[in-house]
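TEACHING EXERCISE
Course module: macromolecular assemblies
Task: Read the component lines below, then compare them to the predicted structure of the full complex.
Student: A.B.
Group: 4
Components provided:
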Amino acid sequence: GQSLEQPSEVTAVEGAIVQINCTYQTSGFYGLSWYQQHDGGAPTFLSYNGLDGLEETGRFSSFLSRSDSYGYLLLQELQMKDSASYFCAVRDNQGGKLIFGQGTELSVKP
Amino acid sequence: NAGVTQTPKFQVLKTGQSMTLQCAQDMNHNSMYWYRQDPGMGLRLIYYSASEGTTDKGEVPNGYNVSRLNKREFSLRLESAAPSQTSVYFCASSAAGGLGEQYFGPGTRLTVT
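Instructor-supplied answer key:
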């Protein structure tokens, strides 16, 4: 079967660093994406890793290890506005079809 | 540039009623998708269209039909709504291949009583 595992909740304080892990088991693998969703809103794309290694975009970085079927999203200098749900998603074929994890709810405290 | 638009934003149906959710994108994307999201859950793919003229089932297609009307528009139809279809429905689009980047509409909040 196809499955993605990520923690359901993470809490951190403003200014800290937090890492959200994602492990996957899928029939095909072409890349790992991360999405952010604020309460009641639409998911928005954060990053994509097609190859092993680290991708950095401002305060956010994403890492992939295909041999370990594992990736993570790293959020630095946390701000209150980063409180949201974060989803990892596997691109499982050459098209754009994604399989989403169940999401990690991040709470940033003052 | 409106991106991805969806109508309606909210809808309440009685069991057995039918309705069509509309989605349009103005980014000239080839691929379009319909997801449902239940409380505390991730997004589950209902149907997708890799390109104009093609549609394929996703993870949870039962009870739904789709039409890729043209490159811009992709509709989702519930023929006989059931309470289990109460959910938030998101439409998304991506360029061909997409590299994992999809653009989502604002969602339709559907309640079936």
